[in-house]
Amino acid sequence: MNRLNIVLVEPQIPQNTGNISRTCAVTGAALHLVKPYGFEISDKKLKRAGLDYWDKLEIHEYDDLDDFFSKNSGEFYFFTTKGRMVHSDVDYPQDREVYIIFGREDKGLPEKLLYENPQSCVRIPMRKTLRSLNLSNSVAIACYEVLRQWNYPDLGREGKLTQYTWDE
User: Fold this and answer.
1) Which residues bind S-adenosyl-L-methionine (predicted)?
2) For residue 132, what pLDDT is reported?
């Protein structure tokens, strides 16, 4: 089985990227960051959101989307409010690399990329009158759907508490 890969294309908000890095760390997903960013990787806000997990991440950086695609192969799923399929209706394969790809907080993914890959564009259902979910929430929803389908590989299913005590 291959690893889940989370790709952020031109992320702009350091707190979102920090939260997403924490999600990657606790799930074992690799984080791929495509430049340009709206912050510096050393930004305090970025590290504050996932500081104690930063050394547990597998991070890859790319100069642009062409650089990313030239160095990676597998199944690519483009998360967009314009997707034809619902994210939970997709069968994410376990026998090859899976990349779930998210765009900028303010613009999403490039229209050309979506136009060229309509069969791989997926969406998270939401009310039509509202714009979109927060990026870090969207990544967490998508990440855990893939991992659920894969039966949560290498993730503990048992809780940390072994005995409950209740105040009377």
Assistant:
1) 103, 124, 132
2) 80
